[in-house]
Amino acid sequence: MPAIQHTVVDSPYDPLTLVAVDGVLSRLHMTGQRHRPPEETFGEPDPRPFGEVIHQLDAYFAGELTEFNLPLNLVGTPFQLRVWEQLLRIPYGETRTYGELAEELGSPGASRAVGLANGKNPVGIIVPCHRVIGAGGSLTGYGGGLDRKQRLLAFESGTAAPESLF
Question: How far apart are CA 99 and CA 40, in angstroms?
């Protein structure tokens, strides 16, 4: 049986709940997030597996880190895993449309499927699903809420300081 632990950390986007399976980050949940599982699935409270995750999140929110380098234990369908891997390739401060991601995956007609997989991303911020926008640049869907998505994009583009993220 896998060991599941969690901890809660402060961030400019409200508290973040980090969940590890066998010591590897598996989920990051925001307050009020869509698709947030019940707290009883978060395992035992234990901050020990999260030292490097917390260090990198702090550096990201301080504007000092633009790319996370963490082992992840992502669980999803093969298609979801391909989408999440593609999300990790979107550079800091840039965006892609759902259609562009579908094309990059070799499935140009699958923008809706990409959107659904994007919405099920279990490790928001670190796997940057907030960097995906609708056709024409519109802000569409974000499990953490459109306000958070807008603030993350403004932060990464340099148009908002970290202290304005609250």
Answer: 36
